[in-house]
């Protein structure tokens, strides 16, 4: 039976032009290209230019996604922007994106779930579209994450980068197995001390820097991600063999491999872009998704499984058909 569903009509992405290589980082802190590649798979990351804001990155990805969807900005009546690095404490960065795109109708707001942000934003937009509250949504993940890094802390500064990615979601009638199919999102606030920023508006009055117990996060990541994926598959009656493409959050190649192995997922189905931009937090899933759609690996009708894990802890998985 057909119901109102949301469909991904187009995707887009943007990476700032400045590239920081592992060799560059080795001149800044006690690290090496060999350590970074072996432990993370990362080769380089992009850094936003001075004065280039999260909203600027988001707008570039949004324009790309709208062009690929063949949809005009004025048709967008919802913007959900996932970010941990907003332009200002308020208003929501999504409203800056709305204004920069020349949109004066509908609603725009931010979602804060760190590296899982894009999946939380997709689940939010999908629910609103299915309820009939809006018709056409821009779901964006955008970060200037390098602005909250402590450049003297080698355990975190080598991991992250800046970037953005976007998807246009539109409401239409469809069958259960079409369009956006299912989400499973979770948080556990008792683990916040393992990955957090040591500043904030109501605590220190400063922006703060990222602090992470990397190996602890790693341990929880593989377990939580695998469990979220199992939930999504059970919910929909699909099996891992039905999945055409796995588009995970791009934090660490070893996590991608660990999850794929645990789920018995063929490694050739895993989309990995972490080498080229490091961990871009909420931007990483749409960046990877857009890369694999652009190079024609992911085709219309393919079933895509996505997952993420980040600060909070927050984590989740989504299943959708292009
Ligand atoms: O997206 C949000 C979620 N975040 C993640 O998913 C990140 C999850 N964690 C990870 O990706 C990994 O834990 C890291 C890449 C952060 C670290 O890899 P690891 O294999 O877990 O290393 P470790 O933290 O256990 O550290 C091993 C060693 C330590 O030295 P000792 O104590 O063995 O002498 C560190 O001090 O590596 C050292 N180390 C480094 N060495 C060179 C830590 N960072 C560096 C570095 N260069 N950049």
Short descriptors:
10 helices, alpha/beta, Peroxisomal Thiolase, Chain A, domain 1, binds oxa(dethia)-CoA
Helix content: 25-40%
The level 1 CATH classification of the largest domain is: Alpha Beta
Class by SSE composition: alpha/beta
Mean pLDDT: 97
Radius of gyration, in Å, reads 18 Å
Topology:
Blueprint: E1 3-14, E2 18-21, H1 22-26, H2 33-40, E3 44-47, H3 54-69, E4 78-82, H4 93-100, E5 107-111, H5 117-131, E6 136-143, H6 154-157, E7 163-174, E8 180-187, E9 195-197, E10 210-212, H7 214-236, E11 245-248, H8 253-263, H9 274-277, H10 284-294, E12 303-310, E13 314-321
Parallel strand pairs: 4-5, 4-6, 11-12
Antiparallel strand pairs: 1-7, 2-3, 6-7, 8-13, 9-10, 12-13
Helix pairs in contact: 3-4, 7-8
Bound molecules: oxa(dethia)-CoA.
Oxa(dethia)-CoA binds next to helix 2, helix 6, helix 7 and strand 12.
Structure description:
α3 crosses α4 and α7 runs parallel beside α8 (253-263). α4 links the parallel β4 (78-82) and β5 (107-111). The two termini are 19 Å apart. The chain is 33% helix and 26% strand. The protein is built from 10 helices and 13 strands. It has 322 residues and is α/β, with parallel strands linked by helices. The protein has helices spanning 22-26, 33-40, 54-69, 93-100, 117-131, 154-157, 214-236, 253-263, 274-277, 284-294; strands at residues 3-14, 18-21, 44-47, 78-82, 107-111, 136-143, 163-174, 180-187, 195-197, 210-212, 245-248, 303-310, 314-321. The chain folds into 2 domains: 3-174, Peroxisomal Thiolase, Chain A, domain 1 (3-Layer(aba) Sandwich); 180-321, Peroxisomal Thiolase, Chain A, domain 1. It has a 5-stranded mixed sheet with strand order 1-7-6-4-5, sandwiched between helices. A 4-stranded mixed sheet has the order 8-13-12-11, with helices on both faces.
